[in-house]
Design brief:
- The complex is a heterodimer of chains A (640) and B (366).
- By secondary structure, chain A is mainly beta.
- Chain A is 7% helix and 57% strand.
- Chain A contains six helices and 33 strands.
- In chain A, the strands form five sheets. Chain A has a 22-stranded antiparallel beta barrel.
- Chain A is globular.
- In chain B, a hairpin with a 5-residue loop joins strand 20 and strand 21.
- At the A-B interface, strand 12 of A face helix 1 of B.
Chain lengths: 640, 366
């Protein structure tokens, strides 16, 4: 759908946005620093790296969808999607599904067996905050943060009592329902209590009116998803906080459910629990996560049952180093993490298997002048059987222009990344390899961000980032060795990301645009047998070279209309690039209005998905659905 | 996920060892008909199995004098892919028949095409066709071996009899243990079974009555190769080659293949004079690297000489072109990149190689 030439045009358009505007807005001074929220992930040590916060209005708009839908709409992350409600994995900056860390309140929740997250199993209803950190941040996040990290967070309620319940009905007999209660109350002069309890339940029956589109099958599937989230916070005035977090989620996918012998069921269940205690500069955290995967074909009563437990504890302590009276202090965070895995998987050579991982880290942040922020971060991991490489990183931000109405910041980062092999890669019978080496990479990136406070009557932010990420010992379930895992590949991923955000408010009107374009060139660099000559230099599979996304909204009082565009160029499906899926562009429309009276609110939302009825295929070579509709109504009561 | 995939791959690899011998049976060139029209008149059709989970099998085509192929002629002719793995291809006088195997249940089909243009002429899907394996055309009927829906115990296998005029399945003849390779001669269809099943006999169907007759018991899973120059049926069973009298169904000779207990023979194919048989003997080392070689023996040999292979490498498909006598061998570097059709002379010397589709396991000559 999008030819390369058209993408070049977009590219030039964006580049001119990013580059041409400085002359326009250099008016005056005082720029506000971006708000640094005290969070579960030490983002303030990520200087030099790009972090994108998805705003709460955008998240609320997608409250009945999965996180993959939000990320597709707002970021250039490409998803390898097997179909609606089916396996959906991320390719972040041209890397594989194993190279995106997904953190829930700071804890990596990638399934330890697979080393990846199926984004179709993470509903937006399960968390309160979503940020995307681009590029390698292994020194801060640890393993898996090679292409980038997805940060999911819980947020302490500030409302004394708030309850909401909603339901969505969509085409194809698909339904979603959810309810949550948020509460906060002071316990005494010192301590305050707050919390959230949420439920969600989704039933995607995918009853397509026609079994095919353009002669391609719309595969019959059904996905049932349900979960509970419980967050409790005890906060004290003397900078103490105790919090507990529980997230139980269950996702059951069945392919061709009405075919009793051929149907395939994959059930993914996760129990995630965490307790965290923070007193001034010391934070302690301990977590237990159980991931269960059940798979069955035909007879669903006796599935292959695999269970993995992860026990993880973390200690971190903040220090401030004062080098001298004329020198700004250096902020330091140091700590360690201990993780124990225990896994029972039917396909493993032995059961159970267990593994210990330990990490020590030292993070620093220093602002020598008001214009410069620097971070030097160090991390060393230790894993049963082998040790991942020492992982340093350095990040720098330089504020070239700091004016009232215009800000320009240059950013750069140079970081080592690593990925500890997954449990499957080490312990799978015959095909796994206990001696497989951790992957390691060096990521370089540079870019700038600029903010115009009075552009076109609103606030305009643009950024451009160039990156170059070489990953060695890239593991590969080698298809020419019966899918035995090997450290075969060396991959170079490089590209550019352009982003633009514009917000304007005047009277009762609000308008906004969020748009991005990314170019990703990701290729295998090393030949390893005769026929790999056909693969060297070729674009990695399912990594589109070009992606673009745009979200534009117009809001009048409490009515908002949003248009979304997601586009991707062709995705090669074979390593030699001999086959590919065509590029496509998707347009979605959302309209939402809120009726409020007394302390009650009703939010009515309508969606038209795939407005243009675009035809595109998924990984299985099956058609994706055409135009469809969704209508939802959410009721809420707020005691304030 | 990897578990299921890798298991599938193993099975797929095994099933790919089947070659479309049936193509010999129906190969005919009727010179008296008005000259057919189309882009695919005279050349080599390659059956590319594709990667199972990606449903990306295809038929490639090249003229004999060329060394580049059109990777997917069904897509070229119809603007849409076959949407599954391709298990086999055969053609009647005007019609091509493609066996399409999708990774999802209920999506398999027999796809009909116009023989010379490859234009879509309709298809038969589930429940008539489930997990099709191989096709043989006899007159105006096509016989398609199908595993049915049960692919764990192979309890639901059958031969689908298709009337080529009405394009309908007129009969399903039950065959146990996963019917696989087919060979036809003199009104009899010989049916082998998958190596993953428990079969130990060669089923026989009388193609006049479309009824089964008494099977031939074999020591090991039967894999019929075809009828030799003397009218004898050759069958591979485990590590043996059986020469069978088709009148009496008696085994007249048994030749051992020196497998060393670990190597697997497969991809049997006759030479043009029907006096020699080519085959591949392969095995995997501990790191799952495939090793092996391609051998040739004469139907008059009293034992199969294994000292010097004809070609010191294994292949996933093997067939001899009736027109030129060249040996066509399929090379599949992996299920995630295009394979090659490599051409050899009868003495095993290399001619050239042509890039085709993914996992080229079979050839059809026209």
């Amino acid at each position: 759908m999008f030819t390369d030439r058209r993408f070049v045009c977009y590219w030039i358009l964006w580049a001119s946005f990013a580059l041409a505007f400085p002359g326009y807005a250099q008016k005056d001074s005082i720029a506000l620093d971006p708000v640094v929220v005290r969070g579960f992930v030490p983002q303030k040590f990520m200087s030099g790296l790009k972090i994108q916060h998805i705003d709460s209005a955008s998240l609320a708009q997608a409250r009945f969808q999965n996180v993959g839908d939000v990320l597709s709409a707002y970021t250039p992350i490409a998803f390898k999607n097997y179909g609606p409600g089916q396996l959906s994995t991320a390719s972040f900056r041209g890397t594989s599904a194993n190279h995106t860390a997904v953190l829930w309140n700071g804890l990596n929740i990638n399934a330890p067996t697979l080393g990846q997250t199926d984004f179709s199993t993470i509903p937006v209803a399960g968390f309160d905050q979503l940020s995307v950190q681009y590029g390698s941040a292994a020194s801060i996040v640890g393993s898996d943060a090679v292409g980038g990290s997805i940060l999911l967070g819980s947020h302490a309620s500030v409302k004394p009592f708030h309850v909401s319940a909603g339901r969505q009905r969509a085409s194809f007999n698909n339904h979603q329902a959810q309810a949550d209660v948020r509460y906060a109350l002071p316990l005494n002069s010192q301590w305050a209590f707050s919390g959230k309890t949420a439920f969600y339940d989704g039933r995607m029956n995918n009853d397509y009116p026609k079994p095919t589109r353009n002669t391609y099958t719309l595969l019959p599937t059904e996905t049932f998803q349900k979960g509970i989230v419980q967050d409790l916070f005890l906060h004290a005035r003397n900078d103490q906080e105790i919090s507990a977090h529980v997230w139980l989620t269950d996702n059951k996918l069945t392919l061709t459910p009405s075919d009793e012998q051929g149907r395939e069921m994959t059930r993914t269940t996760a129990y995630r629990t965490m307790v965290r205690y923070q007193v001034r500069t010391l934070t302690l955290r301990t977590a237990w996560v159980r991931d269960i995967i059940d798979y069955a074909k035909g007879d669903l009563s006796h599935p292959d049952h695999s269970v993995t437990d992860k026990f993880a504890s973390r200690v971190e302590k903040d220090f401030t180093l004062n080098p001298g009276s004329n020198v700004n202090p250096v902020f330091i965070k140091t700590g360690g993490e201990w993780t124990h895995y225990r896994s029972r998987v039917p396909g493993y050579a032995q059961s159970p298997v267990s593994e210990n991982r330990t990490d020590f880290f030292l993070l620093t942040r220093w602002q020598p002048t008001s214009r410069i922020t620097a971070s030097v971060n160090l991390r060393q991991g230790f894993v049963t059987g082998f040790n991942p490489p020492f992982t340093p990183s350095i990040g720098l931000e330089y504020s070239i222009v700091q004016k009232t109405l215009y800000n320009l910041v240059l950013k750069g980062s140079f970081a080592r990344s690593y990925r500890v092999p997954t449990l499957n890669e080490r312990y799978w019978k015959d095909l796994g390899n206990p001696d497989i080496r951790p992957e390691t990479g060096w990521n370089k990136e540079a870019g700038f961000e600029q903010t115009f406070k009075a552009a076109l009557g609103g606030t305009l932010r643009t950024s451009a980032t160039f990156y170059h990420n070489r990953i060695k010992d890239w593991t590969y379930w080698n298809p020419s060795r019966n899918y035995r895992v090997e450290n075969l590949q060396q991959v170079l991923a490089r590209g550019i990301e352009l982003q633009l955000n514009y917000q304007r408010q005047s009277g009762s009107w609000r308008t906004g645009l969020d748009a991005g374009y990314a170019f990703n060139r990701s290729s295998q660099e090393k030949a390893y047998d005769n026929y790999s000559q056909d693969i060297v230099g070729k674009q990695l599979v399912f990594v589109p070279k070009h992606t673009a996304n745009a979200n534009a909204f117009v809001q009048f009082k409490s009515t908002r209309v949003t248009g979304q565009l997601q586009a991707a160029s062709k995705r090669y499906t074979t390593f030699d690039n001999s086959q590919f899926l065509d590029g496509y562009g998707l347009v979605n429309l959302l309209a939402e209005t809120t009726f409020a009276f007394y302390k009650f609110k009703f939010v009515l939302q309508g969606q038209v998905r795939n407005v243009t009825d675009a035809f595109y295929l998924n990984v299985r070579n099956n058609a994706m659905p055409g135009r469809s509709f969704a209508l939802s109504l959410t009721f809420s009561y707020d005691s304030q | 996920m990897i578990l299921n995939k890798s298991m599938k791959m193993k099975k797929q690899l095994a099933s790919s060892l089947a070659v479309a011998f049936s193509t010999f049976a129906i190969w005919s060139c009727n010179q008296s008909d008005p000259a057919p029209k189309g882009d695919y008149l005279s050349g080599v059709f390659v059956v590319n199995e594709g990667n199972f989970s990606q449903n990306n099998g295809a038929i490639s085509y090249f003229a004999r004098e060329n060394n580049t192929a059109t990777a997917d002629i069904f897509a070229t002719a119809n603007g849409t892919a076959l949407k599954g793995g391709v298990q086999d291809y055969a053609a009647s006088e005007e019609q091509g028949i493609i066996l399409v195997d999708n990774s999802a249940a209920g999506q398999d089909k027999v796809q009909f095409v116009e023989r010379y243009t490859f234009k879509d002429e309709g298809s038969i899907g589930a429940p008539d066709i489930e997990n099709p394996r191989e096709v043989v055309i006899v007159g105006r009927k096509a016989y398609v071996s199908c595993w049915g829906t049960d692919v764990s115990k192979y309890s639901t296998g059958y031969i689908a009899v298709i009337d080529l005029t009405s394009k309908k399945v007129t009969k399903k003849i039950n065959v146990a243990d996963g019917p696989e390779n087919l060979a036809y001669a003199n009104g009899k269809l010989y049916i082998g079974t998958t190596q993953w099943g428990a079969g130990n006999k060669l089923a026989i169907i009388n193609t006049t009555s479309d009824e089964t007759t008494s099977p031939i018991a074999t020591a090991g899973i039967a894999n019929p190769v075809g009828i030799d120059a003397n009218g004898k049926l050759w069958v591979n069973a485990s590590n043996k080659m059986l020469r069978i009298n088709t009148e009496t169904n008696a085994t007249e000779a048994t030749l051992a293949i020196a497998t060393g207990g670990t190597k697997t023979p497969g991809n049997f194919t006759f030479s043009n004079d029907l006096k020699s048989i080519f085959f591949v003997l392969s095995w995997f080392d501990d790191a799952f690297k495939e090793h092996g070689a391609t051998y040739k023996f004469s139907i008059s040999d009293t034992q199969i000489a294994m000292v010097t292979p004809l070609i010191p490498r294994p292949f996933v498909g093997l067939a001899v072109d009736p027109t030129q006598g060249l040996l066509y061998a399929g090379v599949s570097p992996s299920y995630t990149q295009a394979g090659y059709a490599v051409r050899y002379r009868a003495d095993g010397s290399l001619v050239d190689s042509i890039k085709v589709g993914i996992a080229p396991t079979g050839f059809f000559f026209q």
